[in-house]
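This protein record is not my work; I was only asked to verify it. The record follows directly below this note.
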Amino acid sequence: MAAGPPGYLRTRIRVSTVGLFSHVEYPLRRTLDYPGDPGVCGPGSASWPLIGDVTAFVGGIRALLIQSAHPEVVAGVADHSLFREDPLGRLSRTSAYVTATTFGALPEVSRAVDLVRTAHRVVVGRSHRGLPYSAGAPALSAWVHNVLTDSFLAAYQAYGPRFVTPSEADRFVAEQARIGRMLDADPLPGDAGALRRWIGGHPDLGPSPGMQAAVEFLSDPPLDPLHKAGYGLLFKGAVAITPVRIRRILGMRGVPGGRLAGRVATASLRWAMGSSPSWHLALVRAGCPVPPGLFRQPLPATSGSDGSAQRGGH
């Protein structure tokens, strides 16, 4: 049990933040059924520490902003998503997909990809500029996937606890490309520099009604005052690391003090939450040593093949 003001504050921050992502079933609840399975990325990967850090919160917001600059992609969201009616559900589903594909055992990765493929089959239509879209099209899948990869990397580079070497950044992009290929995304740039250039210079971007609605929503989501205050800092940090060209398309200006807000928010979350408990659980499943000092949250509850509740141990 947490004792004293620091422990109480840590618990409040942890519970309120985790609650935002708890609107779907936890995707790794059966992960201990696959002992020794390293998943797609693995314990020695660049992906586990980068996505296992709290900077992933900033990366997720940045990704949603940048993704909305593609008229056909955002039309699919506007026409087929309930993000306005169920924003936390959509946030939770996206988080569950990233958790499963990054930290899951191979069967869990496959299930997560299959769920996305199934959901994408019905997401078809035309954008405001009359162009057809299909969420499963390789080019549109590539935009969504590549922006998410670049955003996680950019957030960690800006607000992470340590420097990311160029070779580590390239390795992260290559690892995430393995997941992109499972969704038939194409193209998938092979290194961090090529990825950033591809996103920054993408020719199909432009303003749209769906983009305007997405930016308005992301700028002022329907959260209670406590959550909104913390989200506001994360949002400012995300805008600050969005490429200037894309900010202009989005109709957004740079936020004064945005990088400071991002640093304060992520440092506070890291102090309260530590690294992702899903990373911790993946290390336990893979039979790897658990680095001391990284994890502050309890291991997620899992269930064995017989349905019995258990927690990972090491």
Remarks:
- Confidence is low (pLDDT under 50) at residues 305-314.
- The first helix runs from residue 4 to 19.
- Residues 90 and 181 are 23 Å apart (CA to CA).
- The first strand starts at residue 124 and ends at 126.
